[in-house]
Write a structure and sequence with these properties.
Elements: E1 4-9, H1 13-28, E2 32-34, E3 43-48, H2 50-59, E4 67-71, H3 86-95, E5 99-110, E6 113-117, E7 120-125, E8 131-137, E9 140-153, H4 161-164, E10 177-184, E11 197-199, E12 204-209, E13 217-221, E14 224-226, E15 232-246, H5 251-260
Parallel strand pairs: 1-2, 1-3, 3-4
Antiparallel strand pairs: 5-6, 5-15, 7-9, 7-13, 8-9, 8-12, 9-10, 10-11, 12-15, 13-14
């Protein structure tokens, strides 16, 4: 088994200092550090916050190499390791005292573009206007939505924008996903759903944007906008997953308690 660890970091001075500290400690435990992506590495170590973690996942094209993060950001929900725990992490890695969890990925089709994301897909206006959307689940028409937009989130993405919009927290070990309205307008014409929908992993969500709103409606994948002249997006759970190293069995609930409550 290779002993190479890819390290990704953001541009902050603090992250740079933690990078050199991590590099020294990991090399002392017999690991080799790569500052560029090595496709044969054993691990991707991300130094930063959740944004840095998501960027690393996208930059590596959703690689099969497991990820773990050192938190130098604000919330750091994906980042299990605190800066005072780097040596403990190196020991656990050396002793293989960890397990691997698979995180759900969403696949979307927009026109001929195939786009994957780890947190969420957001359909909304880029001009602070309402959007009118037709929503189908597994080919069945469900609602005429009118409001600020819709969020389609993975279980681990459910604690991000989805939670702020009133969505439910889904444990990251679950295989489904969630559809959450953003400020829906209720009327006899639109009949927007008033609550989130939790969907099974084999469900397919199709969203049609009204022609009157298409020019100002954007699709956002993990925070990155995608503009298109197409009027439809199709979203489902991907066959691929992201692997994440877990050191502490109770880390998820500790995260919820310490970072969200």
């Amino acid at each position: 088994m290779t002993n190479v660890i890819n390290i990704f970091k953001n541009k902050s001075k603090f992250s740079k200092n933690i990078f050199y500290k991590s590099k020294d400690i990991l090399e002392n435990y017999g690991f080799s550090i790569s500052k560029t992506y090595d496709p044969n590495a054993m691990l991707n170590l991300v130094i930063g916050g959740d944004g840095t973690f998501l960027k690393a996942v996208h930059d590596t094209n959703f690689t099969d190499i497991p990820f773990i993060g050192i938190n130098t950001g604000h919330l750091g929900f994906y980042q299990e390791i605190e800066v005072n725990e780097i040596e403990s992490f190196a020991k656990a890695l050396k002793n293989r005292s960890y397990f691997t969890e698979e995180l759900t990925v969403l696949d979307s089709n927009v026109n001929r573009n195939h786009i994957s994301c780890l947190n969420e897909v957001v359909v909304k206006s880029d001009r602070n206007q309402i959007v009118r959307l037709k929503v189908f689940i597994d080919g069945i028409f469900v609602e005429n939505f009118q409001g600020d937009g819709l969020i389609i989130s993975t279980p681990h993405g459910s604690t991000a924008y989805n939670l702020s919009a009133g969505g439910a927290i889904l444990h990251q070990s679950l295989k489904g996903f969630e559809l959450t309205p953003i400020a829906p307008i209720y009327s006899n014409i639109n009949k927007s759903l008033k609550s989130p929908i939790v969907l099974p992993e084999n469900a397919i969500v199709d969203i049609l944007v009204s022609r009157r709103d298409n020019y100002h409606t954007v699709f956002i994948f993990d925070g990155k906008e995608h503009q298109t002249k197409d009027y439809k997006i199709s979203i489902k759970v991907s066959n691929k997953t992201i692997k994440k190293l877990i050191l502490d069995n109770n880390h998820y609930w500790t995260n919820i308690k310490n970072k969200l409550l």
